[in-house]
C-alpha cells in the first residue's frame, strides 16, 4: 500500500512537472525587440475585448460569452486579446478611504479562474489590464479611494500584496496570461486628476518589480498617447530610467511598450501605421505593440493594412479596438475583415498555419 501510494504521488508530481514544462513551451517571452514563443518569433494579431459587461469579474461575468467569443477569435486567426480586469473599481476590488484594500470578492477570483481556463482552451493570449483611468474619474463614488492609493506608497504596497500578487500567484502558471497592463491610459489621470507622473509611475515601478520577482508574466502600461511614452514629446514616463529613479529596484521595468493610437493623434504624434517604430517613439530597445487602434482603422488605411504594416516594419503586435463592438470603433466584423485579408497574404501564410 505504501509503495503504491508513493508511486501515485511520484506519478502525480511527474505529470504535474510534465504539464508545466509543456505549458512553458506556449509562453510568450521577449527577445530583443520582438515576442518569441518556443524559440520562434510571434506577432500578436490581436484585439481588445475590454469587457462583455462592465466590471465583468465579480459582477455579471458570462462564461458562455467568453467561450463563444474566444472560439470565434481563434477560428479567425486572432491570437491575443486585451481585457480589463478592473474597469472602474466599483465592483469586486474595493478600497478603504486610505487606499488600502478593503476586500476582493470570492466571485472575482472564481470568475477569473473560469476566464483563464477559457483563454487557454482557445489559445488566446491575454493582456490583462489591472485598472483604468476610470477608477479616478469624476463621478466615480470610489474615486477618492483610488487617488489615495496612488498617492501613498504604503497603500500601493498593500494594493500590490492583496491584489497584484494574489493575481500573479493564482495565474502565473497559465502561459496564456502573457502580460499585465498596469493601467489603461493613465495619461488621463495625470491630465484630469492632478496626480503627478512621479506618483503614477511609483505605482507602476513597484507593480512591475513584483511581477518580475514572482513570475514570467510580461509587464506593460497602456499609455494613451506617445506624448508620454517618448522623449521626443513630454518624456517617457515609463522608461527604465524613470521607473528606477522612483523605485531603486532593477526589476522595476516594462518588458514592452503598448501605447495607443487614434486618428486625432496623427497630426500631433504621427501614425504608427505609416512610420517605423523609431519614427513613432524614442526608445526602440524593447518590443512595441500598438495597444489600441480603431478596428475601423483611420487615415485611409484598412485594418488589414495596419496589421501588415506593423508586421513588416518591426512592431511586435496590434490590438484593435474592439473585437466585440463596445463602441463605434468597430467589432468582430471589422476584425474579421482585417485578419482574413491578412491571413491570405502570401508571406504571412506560414505564420497563420503555425499560429497554434
Largest sheet: 7 strands, parallel
Report the span from N to C terminus.
43 Å
Helix content: 40-55%
Based on Cα principal axes, name the global outline.
Answer: globular
Number of helices: 13
Residue share in β-strands: 15-25%
The CATH topology annotation reads as TIM Barrel
Q: Roughly how many Å is the radius of gyration?
A: 20 Å
CATH superfamily: Glycosidases
In short:
By secondary structure, the chain is an alpha/beta fold. The protein is built from 13 helices and twelve strands.
Tell me what the structure shows.
It is a single chain. The protein is globular and about 55 Å long. A seven-stranded parallel sheet has the order 10-9-8-5-4-12-11. Helices cover 42% and strands 16% of the residues. The protein has a single domain (44-353), classed as TIM Barrel, CATH 3.20.20.80. The longest helix is centred in the N-terminal third of the chain and has 23 residues, at 2-24. The model is unreliable at 1-19 (pLDDT under 50). By secondary structure, the chain is of the alpha/beta class. Helix 4 (143-151) crosses helix 5 and helix 5 packs parallel to helix 7 (197-214).
What are the key terms here?
TIM Barrel, disordered N terminus, 16% strand, 3-stranded antiparallel β-sheet, 42% helix, 13 helices, 7-stranded parallel β-sheet, single chain, 356 residues, alpha/beta
Detail the topology: elements first, then pairings.
Elements: H1 2-24, E1 28-31, E2 34-37, E3 40-42, E4 44-48, H2 63-76, E5 80-84, E6 93-95, E7 101-104, H3 106-121, E8 125-129, H4 143-151, H5 153-171, E9 177-184, H6 187-193, H7 197-214, E10 218-222, H8 240-246, H9 266-269, H10 277-280, E11 289-294, H11 303-312, E12 317-321, H12 332-343, H13 349-353
Parallel strand pairs: 4-5, 4-12, 5-8, 8-9, 9-10, 11-12
Antiparallel strand pairs: 1-2, 2-3, 6-7
Helix pairs in contact: 2-3, 4-5, 5-7, 7-8, 11-12
Amino acid at each position: 500500500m505504501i509503495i503504491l501510494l508513493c508511486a501515485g504521488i511520484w506519478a502525480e508530481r511527474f505529470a504535474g512537472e510534465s504539464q508545466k514544462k509543456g505549458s512553458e513551451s506556449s509562453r510568450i517571452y521577449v527577445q530583443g525587440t520582438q515576442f518569441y514563443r518556443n524559440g520562434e518569433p510571434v506577432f500578436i494579431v490581436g484585439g481588445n475585448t475590454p469587457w462583455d459587461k462592465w466590471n465583468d469579474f465579480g459582477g455579471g461575468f458570462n462564461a458562455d460569452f467568453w467561450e463563444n467569443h474566444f472560439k470565434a477569435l481563434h477560428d479567425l486567426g486572432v491570437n491575443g486579446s486585451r481585457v480589463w480586469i478592473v474597469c472602474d473599481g466599483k465592483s469586486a476590488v474595493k478600497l478603504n478611504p486610505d487606499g488600502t484594500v478593503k476586500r476582493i470578492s470570492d466571485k472575482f477570483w472564481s470568475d477569473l479562474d473560469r476566464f483563464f481556463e477559457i483563454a487557454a482552451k482557445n489559445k488566446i493570449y491575454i493582456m490583462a489590464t489591472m485598472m483604468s483611468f476610470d477608477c479616478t474619474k469624476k463621478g466615480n463614488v470610489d474615486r477618492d479611494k483610488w487617488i489615495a492609493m496612488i498617492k501613498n506608497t504604503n497603500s500601493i504596497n498593500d494594493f500590490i500584496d492583496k491584489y497584484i500578487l494574489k493575481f500573479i500567484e493564482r495565474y502565473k502558471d497559465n502561459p496564456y496570461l502573457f502580460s499585465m497592463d498596469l493601467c489603461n491610459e493613465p495619461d488621463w489621470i495625470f491630465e484630469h486628476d492632478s496626480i503627478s507622473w512621479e506618483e503614477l509611475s511609483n505605482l507602476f515601478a513597484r507593480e512591475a518589480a513584483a511581477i518580475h520577482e514572482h513570475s514570467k508574466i510580461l509587464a506593460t502600461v497602456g499609455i494613451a498617447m506617445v506624448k508620454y511614452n517618448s522623449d521626443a514629446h513630454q518624456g517617457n514616463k515609463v522608461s527604465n530610467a524613470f521607473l528606477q529613479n522612483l523605485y531603486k529596484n532593477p526589476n522595476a521595468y516594462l518588458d514592452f511598450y503598448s501605447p495607443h493610437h487614434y486618428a486625432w493623434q496623427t497630426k500631433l504624434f504621427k501614425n504608427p501605421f505609416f512610420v517605423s517604430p523609431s519614427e513613432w517613439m524614442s526608445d526602440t530597445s524593447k518590443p512595441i505593440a500598438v495597444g489600441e487602434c480603431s478596428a475601423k482603422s483611420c487615415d485611409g488605411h484598412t485594418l488589414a493594412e495596419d496589421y501588415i504594416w506593423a508586421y513588416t516594419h518591426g512592431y511586435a503586435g496590434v490590438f484593435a479596438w474592439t473585437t466585440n463592438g463596445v463602441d463605434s470603433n468597430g467589432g468582430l466584423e471589422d476584425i474579421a475583415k482585417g485578419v482574413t485579408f491578412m491571413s491570405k497574404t502570401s508571406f504571412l501564410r506560414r505564420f497563420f498555419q503555425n499560429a497554434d
